């Protein structure tokens, strides 16, 4: 197992990736060993067993873990008690992992598609470049299109890039990586074709313990066909099998529940990795670090000091080529129900008892279950219309050939949400998401209350809002965290302003990894913290389904806004109803 993977070598610090293995105080070599083990055999379950062993406890394991432990340490499986294993010598396991004989195959189903080309293959290459993939790995593309291995490699090679800050041996590394990519053409509903794939996978795996990750990068209507065929015909017999499922996870509570039921006919919950790529973004990961590792923030994190929280997503382009998909979902399902709501849950959750996946997800579910039902009057929807600027005409949403001319699908939405719990009672969480707006960005903006009896109010003029503290977590672009504080303008008078921001997050000269890199690595390691559990998903749909139904049944017409504008004015009225002024992504503090 290569130890130069950033995550591993960062083990000496406080990286969540190492702490989460359940042994926070362990020295860094232990963390690296654990990661090695995890990729070598049964993911974090073995690591958890090893961590348990380190604490001298007796761990109960399931068959997958047992197989994995058997494969790396057969003597550790006690005679006659196959499901009750005592792992008493943690160090042995670590050294065994170092010359492990396991392999991971990542099968990208839908390899000919947009997401595979744009995100998945490049992320896998970046992991390879950083030495984060296990020693023995193979990548398979699977789709109906006819392609040879060489053609797949050619297609993939066109999208691979090296990091700006790491270019050493880049071409060489690309060549090595491409040699480990293969292609299998097949139908999505053919057990036979997946059996053929299985044969090819076995040829690559040889006698090693085989671990298999399937990435469903395909339209949702064929998820179940693939899961059925893959689980029947090409799941691993002696290692783990995991499936990454892309959004959309249904389009309402019922269809989502049906999808979950369907998946669970063939997989157990632990094998299902529902991806929300916003959870893999650096600044979303940093949100918990900011809150829980800095004493200065946590005491302020409640209705007592926070006036409102804004979660803003904005794109400066339209649906471009994805109109067919988008029209069936709309911006509320595409962005709010998943990406923004997930951020809200992390922002608002109570302190989890540990950084283990289940502890974090338990806290997120509690937030989602405490949300006040969404009211139609707390929602504004919009749709972009054609606009001509500087001699260029930008299309309307309904100019997209795959979109019906009379479509009422929102490309913009703003909503006021509330959490009915003691911490957040009465605090508006305002969400805003839109396509074809004036700028591209995503941020979390926390506006604090006014200072009681503010001695300096005269020095600010009449607008007290401009003098309240604001914490901004800019998710993208130019990732940053900054705090707006009041200052005296230098000079003999007493005039204050908030121009000086305190940057709470130093700039690192490192290029930030793409969200898909982190999430793919997590899935390979069996780390579920950043993936959506089925009860989280149910709670998210429970919140949005009644609203979505009402919008559709009442055929509520979206407010039209010009392509490239700031969106419908209705969003400002909605914010004003709760005494909020939206932050502006474009006017302040750029790197
Ligand atoms: N693209 C993106 O930016 C994002 C995509 N997603 C999700 O990821 C998944 C993949 O997205 P994307 O790559 O854009 O999807 P594509 O539409 O590009 O589809 C991927 C592949 O699936 C096959 N396919 C397409 N339509 C059908 C169909 N009707 N029946 C059977 N097979 C079909 C095609 O392969 P072939 O014909 O060779 O079999 C295609 O190359 C989707 O679930 C999407 O919602 C999520 C976030 C962002
Ligand atoms: O999930 C989705 O996300 C993208 C935006 O992702 P980003 O990482 O580029 O911010 C969005 O364009 C797409 O509509 C949606 O399906």
UniProtKB/TrEMBL annotation:
What pathway is this protein said to act in by its record? Answer: Carbohydrate degradation; pentose phosphate pathway; D-ribulose 5-phosphate from D-glucose 6-phosphate (oxidative stage): step 1/3
Indicate the segments forming the Glucose-6-phosphate dehydrogenase C-terminal domain, all copies: 289-582
Highest rank taxon of the organism = Eukaryota
Q: Which GO terms describe its cellular component?
A: chloroplast stroma
- Which PROSITE patterns does the entry link to? G6P_DEHYDROGENASE (PS00069)
- EC no.? 1.1.1.49
Record-annotated Glucose-6-phosphate dehydrogenase NAD-binding domain positions: 108-286
GO biological processes: glucose metabolic process; pentose-phosphate shunt, oxidative branch
Reaction equation(s) it catalyzes: D-glucose 6-phosphate + NADP(+) = 6-phospho-D-glucono-1,5-lactone + NADPH + H(+)
Recorded GO molecular functions are:
glucose-6-phosphate dehydrogenase activity; NADP binding
Keywords annotated in UniProt: Carbohydrate metabolism, Glucose metabolism, NADP, Oxidoreductase
Regarding protein family, the annotation reads: Belongs to the glucose-6-phosphate dehydrogenase family.
Q: Which PANTHER family match?
A: GLUCOSE-6-PHOSPHATE 1-DEHYDROGENASE 2, CHLOROPLASTIC, GLUCOSE-6-PHOSPHATE 1-DEHYDROGENASE G6PD
Cited function = Catalyzes the rate-limiting step of the oxidative pentose-phosphate pathway, which represents a route for the dissimilation of carbohydrates besides glycolysis.
Name of this protein: Glucose-6-phosphate 1-dehydrogenase
